[in-house]
């Protein structure tokens, strides 16, 4: 008798992969000079193995932003340049603001094109519209988004010590001495003299701030915009309660102002 063909199996093998969209934290290096040797030297002095902050990055994914360079700037020698970045624990994965020729040469090394940076919104809206938007955002935060993490340090930091609040705010309840370093992806609060280095918004958070009851820093930085002690503070903030923030006009300028306590 004839044999009927076998019925197809109702079970299917599970898929070996799944593709989903992902939003990953990236660090952007905004390059402002075409003097590549100088750029590498300054990066090494700050973030290299023998630099001031050798552990500042942890093999972070990096976007190389060339948008501030003149169009006739000669390109870097890509392979040595990327090797120097890796020595600073930075892994270049993308470029933006590059010419088509630069982009093609970068692609041969596995780099991809990143979308153009979006400037901070400066559009004015009516007060009634602003109130409505704020209400909506607050509602979403309360309902779905957990509050930011906070790291608290209650002991003085001596020269050579470094604290990094990754993905969090940092609260220091004791003195940050000269030679010590406090870093946070969020805000930094020092309820004591701040005499070392303080870097808030370490991964590009331009809304981060630094607060101190006695501001006497060696260096202060918000999202990579920094100021050293060589540039003296104004008398109304030097050694007094003050806050540090970025200007809201898109100029990436540090604003240092008295803190009323």
Automatic annotation (TrEMBL):
The keyword Calcium does not apply. Interacts with MinD and FtsZ. One of its GO terms (biological process) is division septum assembly. The gene is minC. Signal peptide: none annotated. Residues 152-249 form the Septum formation inhibitor MinC C-terminal domain. Cell division inhibitor that blocks the formation of polar Z ring septums. Rapidly oscillates between the poles of the cell to destabilize FtsZ filaments that have formed before they mature into polar Z rings. Prevents FtsZ polymerization. Residues 17-91 form the Septum formation inhibitor MinC N-terminal domain. It comes from the Bacteria. HAMAP family: MinC. This is Probable septum site-determining protein MinC. Keywords: Cell cycle, Cell division, Septation. The lineage of its organism: Bacteria, Pseudomonadati, Pseudomonadota, Betaproteobacteria, Burkholderiales. Belongs to the MinC family. It comes from Rhodoferax saidenbachensis.
